[in-house]
Write a structure and sequence with these properties.
GO molecular function, one term: transcription cis-regulatory region binding
Protein name: Transcriptional regulator
Distance between the termini: 53 Å
Number of helices: 13
Pfam family, one: HTH_1
Family: Belongs to the LysR transcriptional regulatory family.
Radius of gyration: 32 Å
Keywords: DNA-binding, Transcription, Transcription regulation
Number of domains: 2
Helix content: 40-55%
CATH topology of the largest domain: D-Maltodextrin-Binding Protein, domain 2
């Protein structure tokens, strides 16, 4: 479709520069309906001098007189009556636009899609969502749990409004906020030899020991791989499982030691089904928990409220 041109073939100015502003058209319609510039100004919540100035600017822009003023009131000229017909169509279209935009906002604010890493989804998210329900009872929330890499991808692709990850860094294309910190523990079944050890476990020994591990791409695995990188990374795993619950179950059964979030094993440590192994100072297994969203698009609506609750 070709762009608009002036009669002499020159490109026309942008439409926004050629069409009067919406406020001026609303004022013209109010004058036509009320027969008074003063009453029209009061209805629109502006001063009469401001209304007069807006009307003069409209007449200057169009190059015709629109209103005939007299001591008894204000009446539209023939040209003004014609312009008011066109203006009404524009104002009605703007009102329809506003109704549609508000409906879109309402639909957006009635649902929230969240993606969260396993640890966050299982041990932190339930409490946050209960609190969010108290603040926004009409919001329908869907929660997808996966490893940190999968969560970041969902947010990048627009499949989630807000994500929560446990990794060491923030993927390109996402902004983030640290919402907390987490400590990873080396845990074993109560009857495993490490459960009774007195000397702290050094990084080299952990790296040389086959473990029950989370899969590559999980935040837990990223932290462990980074901590053991000076020792060529962890040994080939005994088992590689895709959920924290599965890793815990295998560890409790005595299959071998594992590295898990302190949040995930609190109950098992309390009941004695798992034991935490003391770690040497050279073995640092801590991480930040982060909320993530598309870069440059700060969370709004229920996503903003959930983010505030996680940091409260």
């Amino acid at each position: 479709m070709s762009s608009a041109t002036e009669p002499h073939g020159e490109p026309a100015a942008p439409l926004a520069h050629r069409v009067p502003d919406l406020g001026a058209m609303e004022l013209l319609l109010a004058v036509a309906r009320l027969g008074s510039l003063g009453r029209a100004a009061r209805e629109l919540g502006i001063s009469q001098p401001a209304a007069s100035g807006r009307l003069r600017a409209l007449e200057t822009q169009l190059g015709v007189a629109l209103v005939r003023r007299s001591p008894s009131g204000s009446r539209l000229t023939d040209e003004g009556a014609l312009v008011s017909v066109w203006a009404r169509r524009v104002v009605e279209a703007a009102e329809a636009f506003d109704v549609g935009a508000r409906a879109l906002r309402g639909r957006r604010d009635s649902r929230l899609r969240v993606a969260a890493s396993m640890t966050v989804a299982e041990y932190l998210m339930p409490g946050w969502l209960i609190a969010l329900h108290g603040r926004r009872p009409g919001t329908a929330v869907s929660l997808a749990a996966g490893n940190s890499t999968a969560v970041a991808q969902q947010v990048l692709e627009g499949e989630a409004d807000l994500g929560f990850v446990e990794g060491l860094d923030v993927p390109t294309g996402l902004d983030s906020a640290v919402i907390g910190h987490d400590r990873l523990l080396v845990v074993t079944a109560a009857h495993h030899p490490w459960a009774r050890r007195r000397l702290p476990l050094p990084a080299a020994e952990l790296a040389a020991t086959p473990l029950i591990l989370r899969e590559s791409g999980s935040g837990t695995r990223q932290v462990l791989d980074a901590a053991l990188a000076p020792h060529s990374g962890p040994a080939a795993p005994l088992l590689e499982l895709s959920s924290t619950t599965a890793v815990k179950a295998a560890t409790v059964s005595g299959a071998g030691p594992a590295v898990l979030s302190e949040l995930a094993v609190e109950e098992e440590l309390g009941t004695g089904r798992l034991a935490a192994v003391p770690l040497a100072p050279d073995l640092v297994l801590t991480r930040s928990l982060r909320a993530v969203w598309p870069a440059g698009h700060r969370p709004t609506g229920p996503a903003r409220d959930l983010l505030a609750l996680t940091r409260g």
